[in-house]
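I am hoping you can look over what I have pasted underneath with an eye to the fold:
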Amino acid sequence: MHYHSDKPVLSHDPFKAIVAPRPIGWITALSAKGEVNLSPYSFFNAVSARPNIVMFSSEHKKDALAFIEETGEFTCSLVTMALAQQMNLTSAPLPRGSSEYEHADLAMAPSHFVKPPRVAASPAALECKLLSIQQVKDLDGNDVPHWIVFGQVVGVFIDDRYIVDGRFDTAGANPIARCGYADYAEVASVFSITRPPGA
């Protein structure tokens, strides 16, 4: 099968199932008024190791994006298998001013280097300062209703239980990732491959 992406032939668009699994950016943002928003983004990833930089993409200008524009800070909490259902609850379209934390029965924990809190039950979180927000354009130069947020990591939280021999125990933390449709992937084991010399 081979088809132009503007003319899909399958009953469901396979794009998100092909670009998978994708980490979930569980973003907490704080407005200038002190309102807290917690929402999951599946278009999320790391883009730089030195310095640590992450990005997420938001369809339409949702509260997280608006709050980050106002205050220039956010956190990313790791979503684990144990927190999967609560993560999903935080994606609900609640009225502005309603607490996703309360809706999902989650506790907040203070950050050390930024004002937005993190998910207390998450084994790891990144504290970020805003670098830029860019609206996406298509091949014809038309604006697309998606915005990419870039943030530099200024603080890292790790639950000490998941530090083994000086490394973060990814499999032990049991994170999940977004796939296509309503599907998710679970990281329960990892394997290592040594890169070629000079790579």
User: Anything to note?
Assistant: Residues 86 and 185 are 16 Å apart (CA to CA). The mean pLDDT is 96. DSSP finds five helices and 14 strands in the chain. The chain has one domain: 24-186.
